[in-house]
Amino acid sequence: MPGITTLPVTSDPASGDGGKVGQVGVLVLAWSAEEPLRVGEIAMLPEGKEHIFGRGEGDSDETRVRFFRQRPGTLDAGPALAGAGLSRRQLSVRAKAGTLEVERIGQCELRVNGAPRDRAIVHPGDTLHLRRQVVLLFVRRPVLMPKGRYFPRECWGEFGDPDAQGILGESQAAWLLREHLGFVAKAATHALLVGASGTGKELAARAIHALSPRASKPWVARNAATLPPGLIDAELFGNAKNYPNAGMSERPGLIGQADGGTLFLDEIAELPAEQQSHLLRVLDLGGEYQRLGESTGRRSDFRLVGATNRDPSVLKHDLRARLTSVVELSPLSSRREDIPLLARHLLMSAAKRSPEVAGPFVEGAAKGRPHARFTPAFVEYILRQEFTTNARELEAALWKAMSEATGGNLGAPTGSARESGSPPERPAKGGSRAAVDPSIEQIRAALGDAGGSVEKAARTLGLSRFALYRLVKKHGL
Q1: Which residue of 21, 185, 330, 399 could cross-link 17, Cys pair, CB 3.0 to 4.6 Å?
Q2: 0.85 surpassed by pTM
Q3: How far is CA 429 from the centre of its chain?
């Protein structure tokens, strides 16, 4: 039996460094009043050196913040920032020990995580808003994403837009996912997709099929949780005519329908243990199975792609062992720089389906391409929101904002800190944190008491899930 291959999430598939080597502090352009189509561009800030952020070109004796479009193996420089409300020398920024020291030296008001600041210590995940001009997100990224080997260049698409397979994002996590899916597509193995609700598991499964040699063959998809109890085997394997009841027509079953192609079983962990056992033989080489009511065996040359939002350990171990390639899909909390791009795409899609409702929030054309009319308050809100169901919850926030909008731009939904004006999480004098981070021992104890649940442990420690994720990664837990 082949071994289980869990694809490594690294900056270089051969490095084994977890993507940490060569990472620097990065400012991501999350919203721009005058240049909305530059959202997703990044400015790299090597540690120790002062950079000046501002409008246009600066003096020859200063190091300016420059924005780039980063993609695997490429780093394309963009023009100097526009924005009449920005000073030419607006901010002094200096990366230091994984944080960013920021000082306002221009006229435009600076807000850090929604609170006015003249200077601040900014941590990964924090937002900077230069009043009505730009919103920036501070993260850490590799200096250069390695060239991909498995996701075709012709599938990339335009910067900031969905690729040819419908996958959207310019973050390191998004490009690693594309590479992993390309690898699995070309591997002759059954696969398991693991991710929380709304992370795009079916989209990923379709990409595996479309990028594989099976692309011209059948694509068959079913939610395993909807298979009727007592008829699961008949649904999966099919049945002979008049079996098990007189008058029943012959059915090929999902496995027979997928012969030569791909069978996608969403919520595969919801299959009862008995039916999981029934899948074992057909998943071995040869694909042998029997329809109910038939005495002779059949074969189906299909690939199974299963998906679950539960821990893979809930699957029977022998079924889990046959799902050789495992791909984990990151939640939005791990790729926040992609959230504005996803929100823009969801709004564009909504405008096509419901033009009278969503259409007014789409600007006709900027350099020939439409863009979303978001307020900076909305963008700050979605950047710092803890999304439980990811894209689904983000889409719900969009519709709520549309239902409450009184002008031509989408503001933050009511009840959010951005809308009410209440201070955001982690207000602090001089930009430092209001409270001391818990120790490694406290974090381990909280996670242990919570059975590994980050959400429960975060509540125990009085932190947001995002803050606890940051600490877990920081301490290598």
Answers
A1: 21
A2: no
A3: 32
